[in-house]
Amino acid sequence: MTSTQRPHRVAVLALDQVIAFELGIPARIFGGARGPDGEQLYRVDTCTVDGQPVPTSADFTISVAHGPELLALADTVVLPAATALHERLADGLPAPLAAALALIRPGTRLVSICTGSFVLAAAGLLDGRPATTHWAHAEAFAAAYPRILVDPDALYVDDGDVLTSGGVAAGVDLCLHLIRRDHGGAVANRVARHSLVPPWREGGQRQYTELQVAAALDPGGSTGPVRAWALQHLDQPLTLPMLAERARMSVRTFTRRFREETGASPGQWLTLQRTERARELLERTELSIDQVARQAGFGTAASLRLQLRGRLDLPPSAYRRTFRAAG
């Protein structure tokens, strides 16, 4: 963009109970993008469906200078997350929101952050397209809108004129991606450095999801004592006959009861606990990858790499680099 060109206009639509942090992402990231002569590359404004103040998810209300007419002027429209959008849009778009979205010009770039994707979905704007949302809502998203090609693991999905992201920090990733797409890596990298965030991140949302380890912490049930014992011996070979014998059950009975009490087979459960142990060791210790693999019960670094790649989309070294830095 030359100094005589107008900035790319971004309209952020704040809905009732908008998530406060995500509302601020577009202004912070796009607003930090400058051209070679220091010129502003984006103009970011916020509007509501009726121009009136709206409460946020935090303990404050925002007032805006614009109503829905701003959407008709925008080059990019951003929809941040708001509280309980899945439930609020279950019966379709409220009339004021539908009327506001109808003002968007054809060809306008549409962007959602986190559960803002539910608005695009309810409007039919994601039908037949790949999209993502926060991993915790991905299953409900896919069930509610089966015509969407949901990728629950992606940090963000770029489908040309429609882009969606996972939650919170993934919205930052998406905004940086758009700056990179619009103006190149050097501009995006400067914004990232100034904001103290990585210019890009490895892996997908799975590295941030909560592994289902609750059953490991619950000593109840007939297999509880064996599970508690197994957690203290993850570095050792643990076979199904060994665990069944320790529980004083046949392999068949042990397997059936184990699944009833944990929702997983013994083998699945062990792999999950070993993965979680490896994550803890990578985050909290200076052990080598080989040592982590042995202590977590995977035996070799190659086996550990295979498991983390499959479950978290990251090799051990990248996982450690990401989460040691985050800690």
Automatic annotation (TrEMBL):
Entry's Gene3D superfamilies? 3.40.50.880, Homeodomain-like (1.10.10.60)
The reply on keyword Transcription is: yes
Q: Please provide the record's keywords in A-Z order.
A: Transcription, Transcription regulation
Q: Which CDD domains does the entry link to? A: GATase1_AraC_1
Any stretches that span the bilayer, and where are they?
none
Coiled-coil annotation: which residues?
A: none
InterPro entries tied to this protein: Class_I_gatase-like, DJ-1/PfpI, Homeodomain-like_sf, HTH_AraC, INH-QAR
Please give one Gene Ontology molecular function term for this protein: DNA-binding transcription factor activity
Keyword Coiled coil in record: no
List the SMART domains hit by this protein, alphabetically: HTH_ARAC
Boundaries of every HTH araC/xylS-type domain copy: 224-322
> Mind telling me which PANTHER family this protein's record contains?
ARAC-FAMILY TRANSCRIPTIONAL REGULATOR, HTH-TYPE TRANSCRIPTIONAL REGULATOR RV1931C
The name this protein goes by in its record: AraC family transcriptional regulator
- Species annotation: Streptomyces tateyamensis
